[in-house]
Design goal:
The chain is of the alpha/beta class. About 35% of the residues lie in helices and about 20% in strands. The longest helix is centred in the N-terminal third of the chain and has 20 residues.
Length: about 375
Amino acid sequence: MPLKIPELDDRNYSDLVAEAISMIPRYAPSWSNHNPSDPGITLVELLAYFTEMLIYRLDRVGRDNKVNFLRLLLGLDGADWKQLKQLSLEDVEKLIQETVVGLKQPQRAVTCEDYEYLAKQAVLPFCGENHGIRIRCVERKNLEADEFSRDFDRPGHISLVVAAGSDSTPDNYQLLIQEVRACLEPKRLLTTRLHIVQPCYVWLAFSVVIQPRLDVLSENVHKSVIKKLRQFCSPFAGGGPDGNGWPFGRNLYLSEIYDVLEQVAGIDYIETVTIRRFSLTKESLLDDQTIIGVQIGESSTVGVDSMIGIKFSDSDRFIIDGTGKLAGIMLKPYELLGIELQEGDIRIVESLPDPKVWEEKDIYGE
């Protein structure tokens, strides 16, 4: 809602005359005749008349005033100034509005909001408005460092995470990062060190045991479960609790996976949901023999790598409930969630028909 333009002076002729007469006893005590027939009062009324005319003009900003104001905003001179003076009043007012709006846009990157806004503007000509690119600014961090030193406090460092969806990822991801860097470098503070990186993912694999309904094919349920899990954990449009993509740094809870799977058509009930594998790299997650990731599963202790039997150094990521069971995975502010499922991660338990059904078949010889 636009602000109402205030009136610079709303006094009229009557107000001015009344105010002037009220000041006579203070500045001219000997002046006792305040009737309209008095020559002094006539002079007061004449001055109030001219003052009202000047006040009326005070609130009426003409074309020349607006053109000169616009010249100050744009810093025009020479030929540009001559061209500006030839514009119509309507064009001048429209140009003033556009210029004022432009001045309100961030021109320098100081806060995290400034960096994110300017980075989004930088990718518009590169990918279009519906680019499906998400950007997160993290202060006092150098995310270009290795995973062991990313979380060190580094004053003066700004890291910008640029995540592009699979459907809209540019052919050259590095070219996109270069475009963002070229836009932000001249706008950052002189003492700020800028780091622009691809997203850091926490990769998970679930072990799910499902009981389907008798009238549904297990194959269809299997496909629906995989699709639903990938969609829910996706960092892009359609994913996350609100459908806008999994938020940066948001923790994942197993109870949410139960809730999501309950919405899959054809499922009778869910027996178990377990986070079986955890890794910071997709490659190590897919390798069952890796010692980089961590195998969680039902038979292993939370925070202990079941492949080598040692305490996992990043066990503070695991959210444990009161019974000691794994309740969720904790993400850092700059991380996104990724899942990768292998054959056998989704197990469909085929239930036997109700014994009463078999009895009826035997009775009727079917």
